[in-house]
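Schema walk-through. Below, the input block comes first and the output block second. Nothing else is stored per chain. Lengths vary across the set, and this one has 367 residues.
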Amino acid sequence: MKKNGKEKFEFHAINDMATSARPANKRTMVTAALVIGALILLSIIIPGLIIEDRKGEVLAKVEDRQEILATGRSELIQTWLDSIRAQSDRLVTNELFRLFAYEVDLAGGDFTQIVPPTPDEEPDSNLGVSLFEQLPFMERVLTDFTINSDFTASYLFGKTGIAYLTSGGSDPVSLQQKQLALSAFGRKEATFGPVRKDASGLVMDLLLPVLPAQSEADQEEPVGLMLLTFPVTTKFGEFLSQRALSETGETTRMVQITGTGYQEIVPKDPLLIKSMKLKSGTVSEDENPFTFALRPSISGSGAEVYSVGAKLLGKHLWVFQEIDQAHAEKNLVEFRNIAFLFAGLVVLIVGAVFLAFWWRLNSEHNG
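--- output ---
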């Protein structure tokens, strides 16, 4: 009887130890699960915050680079256009040329004054005869200047919008050029017309005021307007081409804003000028409607790009710098993968430690 009582006592003792071990193991498992769950949550939140901060730094560098590239290309093109304008000043500042324009203006800008009198007509003005006699020489001067300066055509307009002097071989004045001349007549500063295309390719018009002889810009009103047409296909193609230091995915484009919408200037494309749809802010002289942002590419491919615009001529012509989103965020993606991989490893290590601890604890109780 004693023996049976002792065995019964021992059985109950072992049973009580097993029963007390189960809650301890359960608490350990719950604690481990909570800790691992918290680690998993932190492994998502903390890397996410770090990655977001890193993204801000990466995009700031991308923005700085794209703005520098766009501004640099814009200034390069502007310098070239300024050289074209400076070259043309030699013509419109020539005193003989200015005197001729002044005499035509005195005649009211009347083109008929340059027509010689008929044999049965007695000239009532020495001005008309004088202008007619000067015409061949002035045409030769204008033609020589046009050829030597690599312009394709030159026109001298009067206040009535009539081109009374043209360079040899020039095409007839188009309606667009006439409207451009009329809108610019009277201005004292040189202006550039929009980029357009003709039989030779892409061209632009430079409009220069012609002042009376022996006068200064701030003293007299212009008496004529010189319109010079010059080719831009080759030069614009060079300016917009990729450079040796260009990164993968970077593209430089040119956007023109017209009264009917947006146009992309594409010197290396057979179309030369493409109509396009582009979302931007309000266009003004003082604000950039093409601020740095993630937007669809101008190319119409549907690809998302980070792009920014730099003003070239007033509010009408812009240099647009793009970089493909995937290439811009390449370093960020690599950093994101490393960050989440590291966080995952931390969770696995901590989980393994708790699992080993639980296994040992369970082994001790079972032993």
